[in-house]
Amino acid sequence: MSRAAVWHSYPALSTPTTVRLPFRSHLRGDRRRTPREWSFIVSVVAFGVLLLGAMLLARVNASAADETRSAFGWATHTLMVENLFRETLAELTEAESSQRGFLLTGDEVYAYSFAPAADSVGRLVATLRMLTVDNPEQQRRLDTLQRLIARRLTLLRTIAALTRAGHRDSAIRIVQLGHGRTVMDSARSTVGRALAAENVLWQHRKKAVEAALARRRVGELLIVCLALLALALAAIVGIWLRRAERFVTICAW
Fold first, then answer.
1. Is 0.70 surpassed by the pTM of this model?
2. Which of 82, 200, 244, 253 has its CA 20 to 30 Å from the CA of residue 124?
């Protein structure tokens, strides 16, 4: 039988067909990887690195968030201490005003407002001691302030007792001696030094808050950039894979 007869006896051979050959590496029997395999390996490695970077950035961002909360807490603590010092001085001044009103008028209404103001001063000092327990300098100032408050309240109670007993002239002479004014000036000076120290702390803690916020913003920006990089990498790998497959198809022909 001739070669032409053999050829025409097999329709599958006589009809042109499109045959997609395997990649050349398979024809040669070597172990070189295909573009799809390389793209998979590159994608896994790249996304692994991105995932590790994202985890590290998330940890850094969480640490920055904790630092920010701590800085805000200390800044709030400083403002609270400052307000309590001012309130203590205001309550002591209120007690002094009540005693003066009772001395001038003899009206017990003023005497009644003295006791709440004196009690409030004691509670405020106790609160300040708890809030500044980690600050030896403020504790020493509170020791001084507490002694001055005790002296001033004792003097106010003495004046009120003399006025109530009918010895108003004696009470006025005590006021004229100026001991109460001296004690109040010392108390104001002590509170002023305490407020100045808290203001220094406030400036440091304000800077700490700003630095913590800046680090947190940088961390968040890096996370966004990392996410965009991951999307760009996925797009690049996808484009490269399609081109590689098109090239393999052409080579197979």
1. no
2. 200
